[in-house]
Fold this sequence. Notes:
Largest sheet: 4 strands, antiparallel
Strand content: 15-25%
Distance between the termini: 42 Å
Order of helices and strands: HHEEEEEEHEEHHHHHH
Number of strands: 8
Structural class: alpha+beta
Shape: globular
Radius of gyration: 18 Å
CATH architecture of the largest domain: Sandwich
Amino acid sequence: MFNQLKTYCRNVIPLSDAELELIDVYFEMKMLKKKEFLLQDNTVCNFIAFIAKGSIRHFHIKDGNEKTCDISFENSWVTDFQSFTYETIGKMNLQALEETTVLLIHKQNLYKLYKEYNKYETFGRIMAENVAQKATEIAMSLSSEKPEERFQNLIAKQPDLFQRVPQKYIANFLGISPESLSRIRNRVFHKEKS
């Protein structure tokens, strides 16, 4: 699992073998069972985690209802950036959708790593930019695309989505009912067969 993160890091920024070995020192492995929480709302998020295996649903609760904001898979980073950055009580929940393994780094260790090895600070900036870009893409999609377009984009990026994520969470993420998702799914798959 640590080698997977090392490969990911090496693909983002040139790091020496000695710099890559720091991952073993500063990161810790955490295994989550299906439906187990990596983070729950009303707590301060003090880590950033890399998904080595599995998937995590990001959601918050509004008016007693869960609102899925994102679903992340292998080779993605997860955190509650607002809570992490400002050390405030968070509103985000991060829950495993299947057996999931993450490699996480606590804030104090991340800052130590940044201070001691400036290449990791550059890596952190790139990682944050990627997360911000993904959030922007989700916001733009929700504001400008029809549900069917959002569905098709989601399937294009994650073809095995329906094998890994319950339909109710996919529908919630797309901002539609499970029944609407079934109709869209049938329509899209029927068009593909024709």
